[in-house]
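Deliverable D4.2, example record:
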Amino acid sequence: MFFMRFSIDALFLDRSLRVVRVAERIRPWVPALAARGTDSVLELPAGTAARTRTQAGDELITEPAL
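Output generated by the structure prediction step:
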């Protein structure tokens, strides 16, 4: 979160794109610790995780772009 100017939500994902941790409204200059098994992180606008009710155990599904 260094050099960021606004808060974000972060979804910590494993290799199968399953959410292993949700960190909501991470403030600028405050590091967020990854969860065990994290392979990637999806950064979203602050409040998105709560609005979409995303929680650990959810699985992201991807579709090809048209």
